[in-house]
Design brief:
mainly alpha; 2 helices
Amino acid sequence: MNLPSILTPDLGLLFWMALAFLVVLGFLAKYALPAIVGSVENRKRYIDDSLRKAHEASERLENVRQEGDAILQEAREKQAHILQEAGSARDAIVEKAQGQARDEGARLLSEARQQIDSERQNAMRQVRSQVAELSVQIAEKLLREKLSDNDQQMALIDRILDDIPQHKENN
């Protein structure tokens, strides 16, 4: 069987193929390989730079997250402080209002007691006045009945005159 010469090359063909390979290899080594290596190096630098920037961005993002957490914590602390101050202010206002209410209640109670005392004294005066008036009227009627004649009038006058010096001597 006779195979084509490309599958079973002879020595001359191998020589020319090797020479062509070395020329192409030399050309590639001189011109193409530096361009390829340069592209690979540029790509490597670009990837390294991108990784560095990504790392920096990650660090910045972490710093921003930490700052955000710190700001949030500070805001929570301020909120708690404000709520505490508001609670204290509320308690102070309530305490003040209760104190004012107690004072006002005490004042109203004192005024009511004074008014009650005043009205009681007025009522007592009126009752005394009415009792005195009634007593005078009763005494007048009794005296008119008892002293209907002159002898009884003279006996009463004598008794009253006898009582007067005794009271002055006793006082």
